[in-house]
Amino acid sequence: MAGTAKSRLTRRRTAATIAGTGDPAWVRWSICLVSLAFLGLFLAVPLAAVFTEALRKGVGAYLESFQNRDALAAIRLTLLVAGIAVPLNIVFGLAASWAIAKFEFRGKSVLITLIDLPFAVSPVISGLIYVLLFGLQGWLGPWLAAHHIQIIFAVPGIVLATIFVTFPFVARELIPLMQEQGTEEEEAALVLGASGWQTFWRVTLPNVKWGLLYGVILCNARAMGEFGAVSVVSGHLRGQTNTMPLHVEILYNEYNFVAAFAVASLLALLALVTLVLKAIVEWRTQRESTELPASTPTSLQEVT
User: What value does the CA radius of gyration of the chain take, rounded to a whole number of Å?
Assistant: First the structure.
């Protein structure tokens, strides 16, 4: 009897504590409803409008929009730019994050600040910077023109602008991850006789593979969807320097709404795929972080 009364008293105290510290039910429901309404109004409704307008004249008209030569050229250019910018950002992100997280050197804080620069500068301003540098009237313009090298209003300028706006993504995902992991495993590998490359490929890289993939997904999504910086340096040459976002703008300004929303739907599908991949990577990362491996995760005995 005494034990039963004591357990009842404990449950009442726990319930009283929860009731005293928790918010009322109407507050929780109100917050949930406001959040759902916001997501529906600003995300779900516009996304549904894109696909509705794209399919307004039927699937045939939707598919016909992608048979246009300019649309195919915009898709190819978008894939080309992303295919160049993303690998370069992977190399830079790995090198920068490894240097910042594993070593101490002068100018480290300056490097971190420069990595964050694209987050603080408007993409349009970054495009204008490249125009001032490489344009015909820019600092290097006359020399480039004399050597028949065209950067602005050509593919190289689009690639440079895309690299600038996307290079923080990989580095910013890897820097805190590498800092949290420390240098103990790398030092152990070096003590066992591993070279620098062996340590990187067999110790450092496997430990950050999910963070690297996360950064690559975000980098690729931004590279394919970039508008501001690319708009400044592209010149809007149809079939030559128009990426998918720029092609959507041109079609919309020409009142070709079905074709515009059809191309926009590809970008929307890219966003949805990015969210799915992002969720998968987060799930795998959380799963691996909660598991306790039976052996050393980097297999230091196999390094040498």
Answer: 26
Q: Write down the H helix ranges in the chain.
A: 2-21, 25-39, 45-54, 59-64, 69-102, 108-115, 117-120, 123-134, 141-146, 155-166, 168-181, 184-191, 196-199, 205-207, 209-225, 228-234, 244-253, 257-290
8 Å CB contact between 190 and 140: no
**Which pLDDT tens digit goes with each residue over 172-186?**
999 998 888 888 888
Q: Mapping DSSP to helix (H, G, I), strand (E, B) and coil, where does residue 1 land?
A: coil
Task: Record the tokens describing residue 117, joined without a space.
Answer: 């620069």
Verdict on whether the full-model pTM lies above 0.85: no
Query: What is the rounded distance in angstroms from the CA atom of residue 237 to the CA atom of residue 256?
Result: 18
Q: Which of 223, 129, 124 is nearest to 168 (CA)?
A: 223
d(CA 261, CA 252): 8
